[in-house]
Amino acid sequence: MEWLDHIKKRKKELGLTNDMLAERSGISPGTLNKLLSGTTADPKLSTLLPLCEALGCTPDEVLGKGKDTHASLPAELAKKYAELDTDGKDEVAHVINKEHARMMKKRTETPYSLDTAAVRTLRLYSTPASAGTGSYLFGDDYTEIAVYANGKTEDADFAVRVYGDSMMPKYENGDILLVSGEDEVQTGELGIFSLNGESYFKKYGGDRLISLNPAYRDIPLGEGDDFHCFGKVIGRLKK
């Protein structure tokens, strides 16, 4: 698969490990490992866009549609491009990549025809919601990811990555959750919570936060605790 060879080559050029690329792109380690191992034969748009952004290339380049780009330029521009040194060509590539990313983002904000899969953007927060010991969440530290529009993603206000194993076996470390921003959830529903400055992905138990993994104890909620609900978990992105 030519696209996979391009991704691996670019990853090697940047000196990135799988974990580093997963963190930079916002793609779960499990999904990325399947992609790099060749298990995933046809990457989804929601995976390809952030991956290309993290690698500093365009989807056309990865899919083999960007070869000899200057050959299709007007003759005068093609001649000038050919005379540039390495730094000059790198600068041109930087501008092209930047403008291409701008156009790809713009496309997600315009109507699609009936024969084109609709796409929308979601905020994916950089700091994961802990399914284990807790971590601080939210603020302005997020990236926008492109996802296919469907019932779940349309209802989601933001996305957040799972960290830890206390919600296994249903939710794994690295899963990306779809969250509907709500101030409270009903008892028994899953949500993203803040407790005394730490964030958690848990099941709400009324007076406690509950893990799905029986190896973890419940977290009791006291009267003096600083407790807040960020939203209800309504699903997760498919790997």
Summary keywords:
239 residues, alpha+beta, 434 Repressor (Amino-terminal Domain), Umud Fragment, subunit A, 2 domains, 8 helices
Structure write-up:
Helix content is about 35%, strand content about 25%. It is of the alpha+beta class and about 240 residues long. It has 2 domains: about 1-105, 434 Repressor (Amino-terminal Domain); about 120-235, Umud Fragment, subunit A (Ribbon), CATH 2.10.109.10. The model is unreliable at about 65-70, about 110-115 and about 130-135 (pLDDT under 50).
Describe this structure in a few short sentences.
With 239 residues, the chain is of the alpha+beta class. Helices cover 33% and strands 24% of the residues.
Overall average pLDDT? 77
Count of discrete domains: 2
User: Order of strands across the biggest sheet?
Assistant: 2-1-3-4-9-5-6-7-8
Largest β-sheet summary = 9 strands, mixed
**What percent of residues adopt helix (DSSP H or I)?**
25-40%
How do the helices and strands line up, and which of them pair or pack?
Elements: H1 2-13, H2 18-25, H3 29-37, H4 45-55, H5 59-62, H6 75-82, H7 86-107, E1 119-130, E2 142-148, H8 151-155, E3 158-163, E4 176-180, E5 190-195, E6 198-204, E7 208-210, E8 219-220, E9 227-236
Parallel strand pairs: 1-3
Antiparallel strand pairs: 1-2, 3-4, 4-9, 5-6, 5-9, 6-7, 7-8
